[in-house]
Amino acid sequence: MIHPLQQFQFCPKCGSSQFVENNDKSKRCVDCGFVYYFNSAAAVVAVIENAAGEILVARRKKDPAKGTLDLPGGFIDMRETAEEAVTREVWEETALRIVSSEYLFSIPNIYVYSGFTVHTVDLFFRCVVHDFHDLHPHDDVSELHFIAPDKLAPDYFGLTSIKQGVEKLRRMYQHRKNLHTN
To answer: What is the pLDDT of residues 129-140, one digit of tens each?
Structure first.
């Protein structure tokens, strides 16, 4: 895979083609001096449990990873907090209203969309929803269903960070189960 900075050939400030590598994180315009730093885009992931302790999973309707399982979530919009983003994304994809969210962990990811490589950091949140009666797929989700934590199989998930997150969640749930049985 090519370095993400290679995707940028022209200075976004003045349009010059003299947009050269400054270091492994940035490019600099020889003509106007503008320095562009390539940073990760922020995204959110919702971990939602029903009363039986099962996790809500979605099937992706679009690429990347069309047809594979996913957890509800998406990119954080400008001027939006991560908590606002997870609430909005869950609403857009499931029609569910989040009552509270708690940060769990983050995982870096590479998300290729329309041939463009986007480096992300995916922020996982445990989200509480009191009412599931409006649950139905929307937006870029084709299907929603619940899976018991011990039945979550990372290989069913298409995005690398979600696979890694599901594996981490499995360990967390197993640890929690072990604490309750001892």
So the answer is: 989 999 999 999
CA torsion through residues 36, 38, 40, 42, sign:
positive
User: 84 and 42 in contact (C-beta within 8 Å)?
Assistant: no
Domain ranges of the chain: 4-37, 41-181
Global pTM value: 0.90
**What are the b/e assignments for 5-43, b being 16+ CB within 10 Å?**
beeeeebeeeeeeebeeeeeeebbbeeeeeebeeeeebb
Output b/e per residue, 158-171; b: 16+ Cβ within 10 A.
bbbbbbbbbeebbe
Q: Specify whether domain 41-181 bears CATH 3.80.30.20.
A: no
